[in-house]
């Protein structure tokens, strides 16, 4: 039986976090590192990455970095999307996650207790205005998490999606605030805490789930008075 201390620690474990220099990605790096994990991250901006690496070194975190790309959105109506928009959003938001899982599989299997956590969106659960393609990529990501949870369970690899609502990041959607019962945007750290939990041994029986961090947005069937 694993000790309580071990169940709530990431000491000795290694994590890869894409887009780790700002927003949710940055918060995830700090949360995982604070729990003892060695973290590798990447960014589209070399200067931002180097600045973060210096700050993390001062904090005593074990973090290394490289340059890469992460998710994005193009706000258009369905009729306005071009074939290029479709290819760009699919390749950036979904295809990249799929191929990263393929590449990481040998390492996840070798670890004996791998955990994949996709950063999805409530847009994969409910309709969001002028974002049908973005919604499709996030819905696809949620299904990928479920599929991998079943296909790779024999290798003791878990797979889950975390679906943030309105979070105070550069991609925040302020227009949906009135539909959020808690009445405020979430903070990146509030998403990162769930991501970290899903990586912990304490979450070893949680797999194939999409968990919303949205202030009850997706549960709010009717607008509040």
Automatic annotation (TrEMBL):
<dbReference type="InterPro" id="IPR045000">
    <property type="entry name" value="TR"/>
</dbReference>
<dbReference type="InterPro" id="IPR020904">
    <property type="entry name" value="Sc_DH/Rdtase_CS"/>
</dbReference>
<dbReference type="InterPro" id="IPR002347">
    <property type="entry name" value="SDR_fam"/>
</dbReference>
<comment type="similarity">
    <text>Belongs to the short-chain dehydrogenases/reductases (SDR) family. SDR65C subfamily.</text>
</comment>
<keyword id="KW-0560">Oxidoreductase</keyword>
<protein>
    <recommendedName>
        <fullName>Tropinone reductase</fullName>
    </recommendedName>
</protein>
<dbReference type="GO" id="GO:0016491">
    <property type="term" value="F:oxidoreductase activity"/>
</dbReference>
<dbReference type="InterPro" id="IPR036291">
    <property type="entry name" value="NAD(P)-bd_dom_sf"/>
</dbReference>
<dbReference type="Pfam" id="PF13561">
    <property type="entry name" value="adh_short_C2"/>
</dbReference>
<keyword id="KW-0521">NADP</keyword>
